[in-house]
Amino acid sequence: MTDTPIGISTGCFYQTSILDALPSVRDGGFTLIEVCSFPAHLDYHKPDQVRRAAELMQKLAISANSLHAPFADHIDISSLDPRQRKQAVDELNLACDAAHALNARYVVIHPGPECACKPPREEWYHRMICAAGSLNDVARHCRELGLVLLLENMLPHLMFGHTSDMLFILGAIRETNVGTCLDTGHAFISGDLRTVVHKLSGHLRMLHLNDNHADKDEHLAPGHGAIDWISLMRQLRQWRFHGTFILELHSTPGNPAEPLAQAREARAYIQKILTGIEMSGPPVPP
Description:
CATH superfamily: Divalent-metal-dependent TIM barrel enzymes
Number of domains: 1
Largest sheet: 8 strands, parallel, barrel
Strand order of the largest sheet: 1-2-3-4-5-6-7-8
Helix content: 40-55%
Low-confidence stretches: none
Number of helices: 9
CATH class: Alpha Beta
């Protein structure tokens, strides 16, 4: 695992145009990224802007591991209204088109709406089925583009905010080009981090690495919160994880050097842990 690629999400520059952020990312020591789809950063509705970003990435020798699909209250893939679901799927498919143009490998998506209010109990199952159907449509579009769709575990106050919900939806999707992305901060707040690698092991393709103190989604650099990173990395090695790590850190408006410095420190911290684990001997089968 010491050769596990470690990249950075451009979400820490979400208020800055990607065309301005990319040179800073490269000069900061990163050539592997997850692209943030926030409109002020990269407006995926504008093919010309996406094309220019792809050209600049090629010039700077930066590769897109993934694109994070947009999320907002109005993008509700679980809506009981077929028209609203179609609008959400159409919006997500536009983002997938941008991922393809950027030569990304994965599209990371929240498998539920950004709605903190829980629906009535009698709606829950129907919304889960609607979400699975919407995601199946997006996964089909991804397959046609040569992309893999990854479902990200969500915060516990959101609809479908627990690992069991994501596994249900994953099982209901018919397309096979679908995996998972583990957000360490989300799982820690949900109380799932001790078991989530085991639960997702057969589907896990990448991790969003960020830290917190188990009370809010702080997006701290690994080692600056309360997550036990040694234990987590041992679990990943035990389950023979061979995917990618993406550092997903908080933004510092007007100071792009700060998140990049934190990211470099976090990369060295994770690599040191992985080296120590590798030197301790072969992994014990789960």
